[in-house]
Amino acid sequence: MPTDSTGPDLDLLRTFAVFAEQGEVKLTARALGVDESVVSRRLKDLQAGPHALLAKRGNALVLTDKGRHLLPAVNRLIREHEHLVGRLRDHDPFARSVRVAAGGGLAFTPLPGAVRVFLSRHPDVQVRVIGCRGRDRIRGVARGEFDLAVVSHDDGQVRAVAGEQAELRCEPLRSQRVTAVAAADSPDGRTLAALPPGVPVPAAVLASLALLGLDEKSGVRRQLDAAFRAAGVAVPTAYALYPGGWEAARAFARHGLGTALLPEAVADGTAPELVARPVFGTYRLTDRVVWPADADPHVAAFVDCLKAAFA
Questions:
Q1: C-beta of residue 203 within 8 angstroms of C-beta of residue 281
Q2: Angle, nearest 10°, between helix axes 10-22 and 65-88?
């Protein structure tokens, strides 16, 4: 990498950021709209000098420790530059944006209310809410692609997904019971209905039902599996279907296709054709906010609005 006083230019940093995401010269060139030879030359520059951001490992090109550490800051710098260019060209009236990553169930959270309060206080800042999987939300914050994320992973899961190099804050927003929901005229529904209202479904009973909507990579699924093990119950090896998302799981349950496990906020107001019972023991779903330790004041202000909305 050039070591003169000017440091790497923006094109070089943009190439670094895109390569970190794409992992291949061809894909990086396509994303940047330049020739592959240009990308190869820039990547070579990024490997030069004592402060290199990339290094050869066998036949592969990987991020150095410094590269992993600086990647979030580089991504934020590129976004800020894009905003500045947009304002200079009168294409973007906002001073900057706050990118919030959330899951498909965000409509059942206080997140929209937090956005409304934040925008009333910071009308010159644009809020962009992006829906994606929990692991992608965490990685996106660690890489600087998002400014913050709302997740249901626990603190240990967040650290494991983000990696040791990421300096992230992770704080709980709210904790709620999980409810098992099934169609009243289905076998699962009749099993749940045999329990008095308000009585938690025992772990052994829950494990015997056709569970919906939790794939093995989700943080919620891993927490539930741990709760089964703590209760001395064999963890279910297969769930009935993976419709994806709380609302989809409830819709599948309504058609008698299994039992949906829903947060209280989603299960509230369950239709009369469904039977709902709380899940066993102390198993709870906790929403958390994840954001960089070096976040700017706008991000910190949004986190404050989020905490107040979830309180």
A1: yes
A2: 120
At residue 3, the pLDDT reads 47
Which of 281, 283, 288 minimizes the C-alpha distance to 303?
288
Choose among 213, 205, 191: nearest CA to 267.
213
Residue 6 in tokens: 């000017």
Q: Alpha-carbon distance 149 to 139, whole Å?
A: 10
Please report, as a single letter, which amino acid is at residue 11.
D
Q: What is the pLDDT of residue 87?
A: 58
Among candidate residues 153, 117, 164, the one with its CA nearest the CA of residue 303: 117
Which pairing describes strands 148-151 and 125-131: parallel, antiparallel, or unpaired? unpaired
Query: Coil, strand, or helix at residue 140?
Result: helix
Q: Which stretches in the chain have pLDDT values below 50?
A: 3, 5
User: Are the CB atoms for 167 and 293 separated by under 8 Å?
Assistant: yes
Q: Residue 251 carries which side chain, given as an amino acid letter?
A: A
CA distance 68 to 45: 17
pTM for this structure? 0.68
